[in-house]
């Protein structure tokens, strides 16, 4: 399998710049989506986060509508909706509505994390007691609401029988097992949690049970990225990602900071190891190095699709990285 045989997509966290506005972040996200569509990206996903000052995608279905209404062909969806924060009925109604408005190009990726800290989770959905058992049950309810199940007196309107495509997201072995049991596509979050990537994919494929939606396993691998004409510039631009990860460990602001020379990042040895481990799967460099890295990763993972994030500070250089990435995947 070669890179130009698999689809590639983009996952946007709608980054807010340290001296920028949320309105600017939304405009940048839309511009990225339009450019991704032009460059041949398959889908453009947005991820639910709460109480994070540098990530402006908390109202994920609203942003999906914003992106979908201003694009034509690219699939738009969630990467993902954090189901513990919502009732299955409301999620089904929201995405059923999106499907009815924009036709069959809406994706519903679902995760079982909170997408924020404990305090924000309590305010999003106070009565929710999180457990794996609850997640499995509520995911099944969500499937039922989007299907044509007649056993319940309550239907999702819109939502009923729309069969919005479901994707299970995760960074753990539990999510891999559940995706396999449900016969669903599985997206692994190696853009921030690469530790179990190979083990999770192996578990998913070995235990996969075909379903109405999917006959064989379909694995999406999420990767951070920073591409530039030279290796040195790509590393320099990637420092914004490293600084954001460092702030995450320090419980600081997640607003995206301007790049700095790698050697000038203010971290101690333990923090440096943690940050580099978190972002160990970053596609970084000029085109030939990026291609070598992705080709090797494709060989190791046998991914059916790559989905990329990008936290480059300068919007023009972020767009340029997107263009270089598309060239690597298509050449």
TrEMBL record:
What's one GO MF term for it?
oxidoreductase activity, acting on paired donors, with incorporation or reduction of molecular oxygen
Residue ranges of every copy of the Luciferase-like domain listed in the record = 22-238
Q: Does the keyword Oxidoreductase apply?
A: yes
Gene Ontology cellular component terms for the protein in this record: cytosol
Keyword Coiled coil assigned to the entry: answer is no
Q: Which residues form the signal peptide?
A: none
User: Which UniProt keywords are given for this protein, alphabetically ordered?
Assistant: Oxidoreductase
Give the protein family.
To bacterial alkanal monooxygenase alpha and beta chains.
Report what the protein is called.
Luciferase-like monooxygenase
Give the originating organism.
Helicobacter cappadocius
């Amino acid at each position: 399998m070669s890179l130009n045989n698999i689809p590639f997509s983009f996952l946007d966290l709608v980054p807010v710049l340290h001296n920028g506005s949320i309105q600017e972040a939304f405009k940048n996200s839309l511009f990225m989506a339009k450019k991704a569509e032009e460059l041949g990206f398959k889908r453009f996903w947005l991820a639910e986060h709460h109480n994070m000052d540098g990530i402006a995608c908390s109202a994920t279905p609203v942003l999906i509508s914003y992106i979908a209404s201003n694009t034509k062909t690219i699939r738009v969806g969630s990467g993902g909706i954090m189901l513990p924060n919502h009732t299955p009925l409301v999620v089904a109604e929201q995405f059923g509505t999106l499907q009815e408005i924009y036709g069959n190009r809406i994706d519903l990726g679902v995760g079982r994390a909170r997408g924020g800290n404990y305090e924000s989770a309590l305010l999003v959905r106070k009565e929710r007691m999180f457990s794996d058992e609850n997640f499995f049950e509520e995911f099944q309810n969500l499937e039922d609401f989007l299907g044509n199940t007649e056993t319940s007196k309550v239907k999702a309107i819109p939502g009923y029988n729309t069969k919005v495509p479901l994707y299970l997201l995760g960074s753990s072995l539990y999510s891999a097992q559940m995706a396999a049991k449900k016969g669903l596509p599985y997206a692994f979050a190696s853009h921030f949690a690469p530790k179990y990537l190979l083990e999770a994919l192996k578990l998913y494929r070995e235990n996969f049970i075909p379903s109405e939606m999917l006959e064989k396993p379909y694995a999406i691998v999420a990767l951070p990225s920073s591409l530039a004409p030279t290796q040195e510039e790509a590393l320099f631009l990637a420092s914004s990602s490293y600084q954001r990860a460092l702030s995450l460990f320090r419980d600081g602001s997640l607003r995206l900071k301007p790049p700095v020379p790698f050697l000038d990042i203010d971290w101690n040895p333990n923090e440096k190891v943690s940050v580099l481990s978190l972002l160990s799967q970053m596609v970084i460099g000029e085109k030939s190095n990026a291609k070598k890295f992705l080709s090797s990763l494709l060989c190791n993972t046998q991914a059916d699709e790559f989905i990329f994030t990008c936290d480059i500070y300068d919007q023009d250089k972020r767009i340029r990285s997107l263009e270089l990435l598309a060239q690597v995947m298509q050449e």
